[in-house]
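Protein folding task:
====================
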Amino acid sequence: MDWEVGNTNHPPQLPRTQPRMTFRDRLATTRRDGLACPNNGITNSPRRCVRTDEGLTNKIESSDPVAVSQLNPAPPAPAHPLANPGYGKRSAPEQRPARDGDFAHLPRREASIAGYIDRLPEGADISVKTLAKVLPDYGQCAVRTALRHLSEAGHLRLGKEAVTDRTGSRRWVTRTFFSRTARDDAWWAAFQGGGTAPSAPQPPRQRRPSPRSKAYDILASLGRTQPAMTLSEADCVSLETLATDWLTRGATDAELVHALTDGLPKPVHSPPAIARIRLEKLPPQRAPEPDATAARRPLRLLECTECRVPGRPEALAGGLCRVCRDEPPRPPADGLPEPEVRAHAARVRAAATRPPEGTPA
């Protein structure tokens, strides 16, 4: 020892060592760092802690495609529920394209609901309960009243339609027909019968005159089917009238070509002469084919929009029956006056209470 007891000099200072960090100190440090960087320790987060002059901040690593792909977008809005297959909304035919102001003539509530229904797909459930559920601004009473006003305005009709399934059985399904274009009662009556009301006469369109008829085109194209029957322009013009008669009698294009090109002699010396001889032998006049549209005409039955009572189209003015329109019942077209009916009923009651003849009193 280079120093003795009583020496006032202090012992030499030893270098200080870092004190050991206890578990409690490490836990406190970890919590402090976590508060400074919320995503500290989260490996799948697209944010990274970056030290700046202001302190620790969170920064999105746009260069990391995996991290950016983990950003979940906002969930899409739930789709409008669909009705059971075969039921729900059905768009009426012959509607004009959608545009702004289609329902500007309606009140605000009716225009809002009509615009929402117009955007729905075919088969969507547009019942009162469903519309009130998806439209939080309106309850069932408001939706029911709005649908009644849409029916009176000519945009909506309720009814039943007979459909045939794959097994051949027929069943009635309830459908709601919606039209973006307002229709009158006559149009809906014709639609109920399977057709459409006659529209206003349109001005005739100016069409360019066709330089060649269909018969001329068939004659000019014979050389593609049979090169030996190639005709000149003058030949096609001279035979055009005869070929038109074939088409007028119901012959198809393929039948006309077959009649002119089948069974030709070899060699063919004069194609125009052969074509004229065959075209002069006109086919028999065919009977008109049955109307396919009438065979497929749907069977519909309109109902009152308010009480769902079925009725004839002329009895559902505005889509409502007479009771829902608050109209008094119509008097019978023929019959006895009311006093005579009462007198007749009195005579019937008296005859019923009279004892039969021959009965002792």
